Every structure is written in structure tokens, then in C-alpha cells.
Amino acid sequence: MVIVADEIYTGIEIEASSKDEVKKILFDEAKLSVKLTEKGISYNADEIKRFLDPIELKSGFNRGQGLTGFSLPHGYNARGQFSRWTPYSLLVEDNQPVLYDDGTRIGEIIFNKGNPVSEQLLSTGERVRDITNISAQGGLHVMYSNECSLKDLGEDCLYCAFNERAKDGALNKVLLKSPRQVAEAYDIARRAGVANHFRITGGFVPERRELEYYLDVADAIKEKYSTFYGCAVVGAPADLSVLSKYKEAGFANISTNIEVWDRNIFAAMCPGKEKRNGGWQHWVDALEYSVELFGKGNVHSAIVAGLEPLESTLEGIDYLASKGVVCHFSAFRPEKGTPLEGYRSPDAEWHWELLDKATDIFHRHGFTTLQMYSGNASGPHSAQVFQIKAGEFEGNQLTQWKFPSLD
Amino acid sequence: MAIAELEQTKTVHVATYDKEAAKQVLINEVKLGLLLAEKGINYNPDEIRGFQDDYEQSSAYNRQRGLTGISLPHGVTARGGFNRFTPYSLVVEEGQPVLYDEESRLGEISFHHAHPVTKELLSDGEKFRHVANVSQEGGISVAYSNECSLKDKGEDCLFCSINERAKDGALNKVLIKSPKQVAEAYHLARQAGVGNHFRITGGFVPERREQEYYLDVADAIRERYNSFYGVGIIGAPSEFSVLHKYKEAGFTNISHNLEVWDRNLFAAICPGKEKRNGGWQHWVDSLEYAVDIFGKGNVHTNVVGGLAPLESTLEGIEYLASKGIICHFSAFRPEKGTPLAGYRSPEAAWHWELLDKGTEIFRRYGFNTLQLYSGPASAPHHGQVFQIKYGEFEGDRLAQWKFPSLD
């Protein structure tokens, strides 16, 4: 058995007699998930390949590496890179992939399946998946640009592989998507029932023209639909008053991703955001200003967890929550080609402590599950723990949360 | 075989002596040392315990964890924590600990043993080892204070566990050593032939009274000896002119440990050094001023390798080298009880790149081996790589470097 600071559930079938006991099972599965990320999984690639969904394999989120995302036996989401030196292994039993922890059977896992609508063609010949990702929650994620103009200034965020990934022509067929393409992909997805949330993000555009672009996209969508439910992920604008235009255009949520709460580490890790947008204080001001426009719980930010001390990250999450901003967080994954290549993310216990304490903060400030998923792409990282704490599960299974249907 | 992100040529027996081939063997062993630090070693503690030196196990450097320092088969120094899931294992064969990489036998290792003088008693009944450590290089290292006054201000360096370790009464019997105790320990060491370098360091003392203390220690030593060879490790003084006094007192080397080159990260990671000593620029200015007094190659600083991007760390090493300052570096080891507990040091390949490029810089600026060992305690981390590159070895074995004898 793997040596753990926190005891985790090891697959023994427990007949949970109370909601709290089930909660414990699900928390243990959440801890297992962060451990799989840290320690990796041993498997025979030839044996497992057939379980991996081709659409998921092609997703930008998969980074073209190893296993795609999967659900653990009780429904918690997980990922894991290949490692020979790990307690965790995947075996195929009765034609199903089964996870083991050092010889103890944990249970069957299920690999994520992409939505078939991703393969449909637009009128311009591109596939939906070249324009947008369809999330497991039934929403769309569009990166309008696959490049960030901070590269040319030598001011890329140090952890960010955006410009590195843009070099991959297979993953990024369309570097800059037109508003018309985005709206058409949205239409196809909405008719398929998977456009119940629309997130649009991307790198910095030269001359900061994302405002015009986002509004053009919203207008193009609204040629067919009177409303949509979505989130615009934007840099803090120099003139905060322009934020109201996103609201007027139809975005119900807005996100300004601060990435790092400690202001000195922010300056080091995000030199472009520090220099080009009035620095840390201006980003925080933009978030607070946005709450007046969009309302509490509808303004979002994101922190890359593992670039600064835990205490500092929690301080930021708590401060922003007190202002009505949901500060989501992801787990830092060092990326090839970035200045932080070769770094390692903190250990699983660190990430679990953050998940545990931050979701307490989210609950304390009265955020809802819908708000947890309605912001930037980091939302799902903590949302499942948030749901477990809220008792949002049936039996001993955490089902996949879905955005309420718009139609 | 370990995943070869570090390309290691397997140990080959050099039939006809080829210095370049031997150099490659030694460089591979350095890389192996880094991989052991990253991935750990699997061993049976009951079987290995007998090989480890009691004193080394209780040394503050060992942090009471796992294996004590070891010499690999060709003489390179290494460390490794226990890990069951690693390609590396220790097996006892014919009464000797032997290192394996999976099934491949790498060779016998030897554990470091403390010098017998460390078991001696001072006239006041204190054990030598409660006052000083004896290094493998034949010098002594004194942490005059085991506490740092930055704690009371909440301004400890984030990576530093000096105040955490101070809580351990077994490790730190004497929290503040008197100049008389230090001088007596020095005398015992020198009589035993291991006082050939004298390093004194410690936390910040309230009211910055380290200068008086260091001079008192130097005076106490010089009651018996005309001179000594050593380094005073101090914070950048507010008034640079006091640096002369260290030189006059007999210190031949001086070190201000900057810890982090990137000035934003310095401010975040070393809040006390940023606030109490005029900040990053003042530390750099002080180092440059010290070169005028102590000479090129006799002024030292240190960065903790793994807290700032590689490029920034190398930029600092290069800039400082151009001014005659040796910027040593260690490998970041996250410590329990610190704000960076749960972090993980970068992977072995990252540390190798720093070692490789850092030592190239040292060579380019003409520093010598004596200078590389004469500064702060991190010197051996890169000192051995420097020696290997300079061809300072016989056959395919790197002998333990020793300070020139003073007597």
C-alpha cells in the first residue's frame, strides 16, 4: 500500500449507512485522484489504447499525452500519466479497465468519451472540434486565439504553454477563429443540447482587441438565439468601464484570471500581466468592479495552484470570495517548452489541502454549484469536492454534473 | 532501468585509460546522484541501519530522514530518501551495501562517517558536535545560532527550516554557542587536522549583532592561532564599510546568501532580507563592495536551486561571476513546517542542467577548486562537478577533496 499522510480508501466494499460515510468514500476518491496525478499509473499501452476515445485523445486538454481523462469507480474525475514506478496500475479484467493500488483492487474506471457533435463539419469545412471543445458538463469552450501576443514582447506567463501548443498544427488547425465560425459551432452544439454554457478565452490579442472580438462573437450567436449562458475570460481592461459591454453583449459571467495571488510572485510569473495591464492591483480592482456589474458569484478568477505558498493562495481565494469573486484554481502542470519546464507540482497532500480549505471558503461565502462551473476552465478541479460537501450525490456515486438545459 | 530523461551511459569498465571516458563515467554518476535525490531508494532499514553512522544520522544536515550521505561507487556524493516505488535499491552483498538500478548492479556504496573528533567533549561538558560539524573536506562549520530572529517578525525565508529545526532539542542542544565554545571546538578540530576551513553562519540575530559576535569568535580563535582560513556568512550590512572588519578579524572569505536571483521572487521568498537589509539591490551592492576587500573568488553567495526559473538562476550566477563573486547553489529540499512544505524540487534533469551550466560559468571566470569549497555549505553540490570537468580525478574515481592543511 502506498505510504500516505492521509489515509485513503483502498477499494474495500463498504456498505455506507449514512450520507457522511458516503461522503468519506467520495473524499477518499478525490484524494486518490490527486495522488494519481502526482504518482502516475502503470499500464500496458497496447492493452488500454482501445478504451481511449479518439475525440478525447485529440483534445487540446489532453496535451496529446498518455491516458485521457477518466472517472474513478465512484464518479470522481481523474487523470494520470504513465509511470512504471508507482503503486497504481491499470489492468483489463472482463474487458474493463480496473484500477489497482499496490495489489489492492480499487474498481473499474471509465474513460471520458467525446461528444460526437465534435466531429461535425462547419460550412467552411472545419470540424466543430477545431473551433471548440465540448465539456463533460454540456458546455462549450472556445479559445478564439491559439497564440498570445505577450510572446512577442518576451512577457509570456512563465508556466503557460499556450504559445508552445500553438506550434502543434494537428492540435490547432485554426489559429484564429472567426466570430462566424464560433457562432456556427455554437449553433451545432446547441442543437445537440451541449451548448448550455459558452466559455470564450484565448491569449492576449495585439492591441487588446478582444473586446471587439468577444462582442462580435456574441452578436453572431444572437443572430440565431436571443440569449446564451456563458463566460468571457478577459484580461483586466485599462478602462474598467468597458466591462459593462460584455454584460450588455449577453455574457452572464466574466473571468479575469490573476493566476497568482502573491503580488511579488505575480510580477515574476506573469510579467506581461504585470506590465501591460496596470499590474496586480489593477487586476484585483477589475475583479471587484466586475462584481458590481455581474453580481456576486458571477465574477471569476483563476490561480495556478503550486506557484506560490498554500497560505497565500488561500488568502487570495478568501479575499476574493469576500468580494463576491469565485477564485477557481487548477493544479500546476509544468509544461515542455516553458521557463518552468522541469519543475514539479507540489505533492498530492498539498493539492488536497488546498481543495479542502478552498471549497470550505466557497461554501462559507454562499456560492452555488452552478457558479462553480460557470467560470473559467479551472472550475471542475474543485467543483466536485464542493458538490460532495454539499451532499450532491446519490447513493455512493457522484454523477456527472450538467449545466441546466437552455432549450 | 530508470526513465532516461537524463541520458546516462551505463557504467563501462575502462580498459585502456581514457580520461574523457572516465570523465563521462563520473558525470553519469553525478546524474545518478540527482536521480537518487528525486526518485529515492528502496531498502530494508533493518539491513542498512548498521552501515550508517549514528552521528551522521542525528546531524542537522540529515534532517533525521532516511539514509545519511553516501559516496557512490566512483566517489560522487549523494543522498536519497526511502521510496518503495523507485528503480533504485540497496541490497547487502558480502557485508557491503550495493546499489542497483532495477536489476542492474551499479556497485558498492559507502556511507559517510563523522570524524572521531565530533565525539569529544569541550571543557564545559558540551559535546563537540553540539557546537560544530566537521565536513568531509576537513573543515568545520558552525551555526552559531540555531534560531533566526526573522521568525518573530513573520519574515522567515519561506524555504528555511532553521526555526523549525530549532524546536528539536535533541538536534539543537546549544541554541547560541559562545565564542569560547566555538574557539575550543575549532582548536580540537585543528589539532585533529580538520580545522583547515572555518565556516560560521546562523540566523539573523536581534539588532544585527552578528558582527560583534563574529569578531569575538575570530579573536577567541586567534588567542591560540595566528591565522585561520574561513568564511563569515552574514547578511548584507546596512553600512558596507563594516565589511572591512571581517577581513581584519581574519576571515579570508565572506558570503551573503542571496537565495534567489529574480528580484520579485526574492521579495516573495525572502521577505525579511527584502525588508530588513535594503532589499535585493542592497544585497547585490554589498557583494560587489566585498570583492574590493576580499578579492575576486573570495566573495560568495548562494541561491537555492529550484525556487526561481533556471534561466534567471543562471543569469544571476553569470552576473555575479563577472563581478568576481561565486554564486553557489544547492538543490531546493522542501522542509516540513515551512511555507513551502509539500512543494517538490524540480526533477533531476533540471538540476543537472543547472550544475552543468553553472559550473561552465565558474570555469569561464577562472575560479578554482579551493574557492569553490571555501564559501557556504552548498559548495560540494557543484564542487564535485567542477572537479570532474577540470579533470581533478585519478583513474575513474573521484577522491574526496580536502582543504590544504594549515599546519
State the CATH topology of the largest domain in chain B.
TIM Barrel
State mean pLDDT of chain A (0 to 100 scale). 91
Q: What fraction, in percent, of the residue positions of chain A are helical?
A: 25-40%
- Average pLDDT metric of chain B: 90
Helix/strand structural class of chain A:
alpha/beta
Give the strand order, joined by hyphens, for the main sheet of chain A. Answer: 7-8-9-10-11-12-13
CATH superfamily of the largest domain in chain A: Aldolase class I
Any idea what the shape of chain B is?
globular
SSE pattern of chain A, N- to C-terminal: HHHEEEEEEHEEHHEHEHEHHHEHEHHH
Work out the largest interface and the residue count of each chain.
Answer: A-B, 30 and 29 residues
Task: Provide a concise account of the structure shown.
The complex is a heterodimer of chains A (407) and B (407). With 407 residues, chain A is of the alpha/beta class. Chain A is built from 15 helices and 13 strands.
Task: Provide a descriptive summary of the structure in words.
The complex is a heterodimer of chains A (407) and B (407). Chain A is globular and about 60 Å long. Chain A has a seven-stranded mixed sheet. Chain A has a three-stranded antiparallel sheet with strand order 2-1-6. Chain A folds into two domains: 19-111, no CATH class; 118-389, Aldolase class I (TIM Barrel, Alpha-Beta Barrel). Chain A contains 15 helices and 13 strands. Chain A has helices at residues 19-39, 45-48, 54-57, 128-131, 162-165, 179-191, 210-222, 243-249, 263-269, 271-276, 279-294, 310-322, 348-364, 369-373, 379-389, and strands at 70-71, 77-78, 88-93, 96-101, 104-108, 110-111, 133-134, 140-143, 198-201, 230-233, 253-255, 299-305, 325-331. With 407 residues, chain A is of the alpha/beta class. With 407 residues, chain B is α/β, with parallel strands linked by helices. Chain B has two domains: 40-111, no CATH class; 116-389, TIM Barrel, CATH 3.20.20.70. In chain B, 35% of the residues lie in helices and 13% in strands. Chain B has 14 helices and 13 strands. Chain B has helices spanning 19-39, 45-48, 54-58, 162-166, 179-191, 210-222, 243-249, 263-269, 271-276, 279-294, 310-322, 348-364, 369-373, 379-389, and strands spanning 70-71, 77-78, 88-93, 96-101, 104-108, 110-111, 133-134, 140-143, 198-201, 230-233, 253-255, 299-305, 325-331. In chain B, the strands form three sheets. A seven-stranded mixed sheet of chain B has the order 7-8-9-10-11-12-13. Chain B has a three-stranded antiparallel sheet with strand order 2-1-6. In chain B, a hairpin with a 2-residue loop joins strand 3 (88-93) and strand 4 (96-101). Chain B is globular and about 60 Å long. The mean pLDDT of chain B is 90.
